[in-house]
Amino acid sequence: MKIAIDTRETARTKTGKGWYAFVMVKELIKNDPENQYVLYTQEKTPEFEKYPNVTQKVFPQKGWLWHWAVLQDLKKNPPDFFWATTSTIIPALTPKSLKTFVTVHDLVAFILPEGHNRKAMWIERLTLKRALKKAYRIVTVSENTKQDLKTRFKINDEKIILTPCAASNIFIPRIKKSIMETVTQKYRLPDRFILGVGTLSPRKNFTRLMKAYERLALTHPEVHLVIVGDWGWCCEEIRKESGHPNIHLIGYVEGTDLAAIYNLAEIFVFPSLYEGFGIPPLEAMACGCPVIVSNNSSLPEVVGEAGLKIDPYSISDITNAMEKILNESALREKLIEFGFKQARKFSWKRSAEHLKKEFYSLSKKAVQ
Known about the structure:
With about 375 residues, the protein is of the alpha/beta class. The chain contains 15 helices and 13 strands. A 7-stranded parallel β-sheet has the order 3-2-1-4-5-6-7, with helices on both faces. Strand 1, helix 1 (about 15-30) and strand 2 form a beta-alpha-beta unit. The chain folds into 2 domains: about 1-165 and about 345-365, 3-Layer(aba) Sandwich (Rossmann fold), CATH 3.40.50.2000; about 175-345, Rossmann fold, CATH 3.40.50. Helix content is about 45%, strand content about 15%.
């Protein structure tokens, strides 16, 4: 089989969708040496270069021109399957003769448009319905997104493949003391802190988290708030709110540095207004950090009984949950124990294996 994949996001600074594409593709090409993988990108991903069954096709064009160039190449050199990991533009334009898999991470452009970049929202609104209609299979990352697709677009169950995200194996508890000390100095971390992770944009709801923290600081001034993440769109309000001396915005962090920060944190708070999955809570749980998440979208599915759930629109709800974990050691220990068990339920390897089996199964049906 020849499987073509859109891997543009795997070579960039990665957030949720980029990490999904990177790890899923890596698991596929590593564990499926029999098939050929053609990876369409704007720049090569170094980690994929060592695999002999991989060809990285670089198209340097930007925006719509990139999608158009890839589409023309797919028509000239048709694969058995094309998998769009992060975008619906090519799937919306491909002929039906090209068997396309399209990953739909979320329906934020439809469910919470005010929490989404305006340009991205309109692109998704213009292309998603057509892409779903043409798609051979639709890949989702959560049961919540699957149900949203079925409800809003009347998609049949058998057309949807569920491939949940996971925490990578670098996210472990009890990281070496020397690494923790180095990371503490590198990012000038306070002795005690609550942690938030995500792009600094409206949907991640960091403004309310900061306001909730300011209330908490009245009774727990020794505990600071650290937020990890790049600046996103429409972040002026976050800049205004971040003036408290105990609030630290330390920028984008990944890899073992991020794992160490999870280990150092006393609580992890993820008050997002909407998520298609939500990888950071899993990473925190895998590192032994108690978790607070919103009571909406996919997040209850991700954390199960291993985290406290809050109304993300209620500042007092967020404050009370943080105070509860700080004040109740038995609850803290329980959440840590349950968190380890919950994180183990998710596996990138299992999700990639499930997708690989779908490729094989559908390939055999096509031959028959």
